[in-house]
Amino acid sequence: MTPSLTLSASSDRLPVGALLALAMTGFICIVTETLPAGLLPLISDGLAISPSMAGQMVTAYALGSVLAVIPMTIATRGWRRRNVLLLTIAGFLLFNSITALSSHYGVTLVARFFAGVAAGLAWSLLAGYARRMVAPQQQGRALALAMVGTPIALSLGVPLGTWLGGLLGWRTTFGLMSGVSLVLIGWVLVKVPDFAPQPAHQRLSLRKVLTTPGVRPVLAVVISWMLAHNILYTYIAPFVAPAGLAERVDLVLLVFGIAALVGIGVTARLVEPLLRNTVLVSLAAFAAVSVLLGLLGNVPQVIYLGVAVWGLSFGGAATLLQTALADAAGDGADVALSLNVVAWNSAIAGSGVVGGVLLDTWGVAAFAWAMLLLVGVAFAITWAASAHGFRPGARGAGKPTSLGH
Questions:
Q1: pLDDT at position 41, please?
Q2: pTM here?
Q3: 168 and 20 share a domain?
């Protein structure tokens, strides 16, 4: 039986089991994407290719996400929601299994591309799915819980996968990811409610969604904020080297991950009453970190302090931005969230290029000031988007809030 779409606005209980299943889906997305980075030497030896060729497994995954997310999201809007979720998880099961078994580089790249397709569809689905499970005033808290898999994957999942790869072999690690996907399929069938597809008359075109007031400002903040974040995250090893922390990158990233988890908890409490202010404070905190690292980035204690504040300010970013985007898009939330996937992954790809140019031209000292410029742009856009995109006051104040689709 399909659960009713009419949710009790008075209930304060979250469907924790269902939301954690969504969080586990996000965890699998992130770990599947980043595993090759920690296993490059092993993959290189196993497939008899160079490390740079092995690194293209990450590129193929990101390419699959960016190219397929919008058409796949539009193509599956007429499907029942749980079927779409199960399709994405089955994609991880299949393509991680192929990656684990393949001895041919070309086949491996194709599998990685289609694993990225599954991830892109998953990311476009998760936020809207979490929002539909709860009453409007709980949507921010629900989304925060559904997104908790991301910082866990970045702080713990990837190092654990790298360790297991060294212990058991890289193929076994990808096989374990397939096993986790199989368990998750059962979890979803038991715990996650199904929802009907969005009615055809409510499905907005890509152009209509893009021209909806508030959508473009939020997407612009996504690009500028994530570009600034990923310049530092991608090149964290050379950045902390002048402070003598080249051998402690794992500890630096652990500090970031733990702080990001705290940030998600804080965001869960603030996203409903103070979404706009929380975004502004998060961006201001990151700007302050940029200045601090730009002036004293060669002091180890400053690095650890800065990374902790950076993680705290970033932890709730996905929740804040996806909530703002879905609120602005209304009936076009699914398409808008697919655009968010494109913006987010484009920023990740762009950070590699921009960071590389900065590193080769001016060195790591330029990172902090480039980050400050980008965060400043994000802050200015957020501040200006008070009518649409980042409204002041509590979410839904003065207007009905959509449950999302």
A1: 79
A2: 0.81
A3: yes
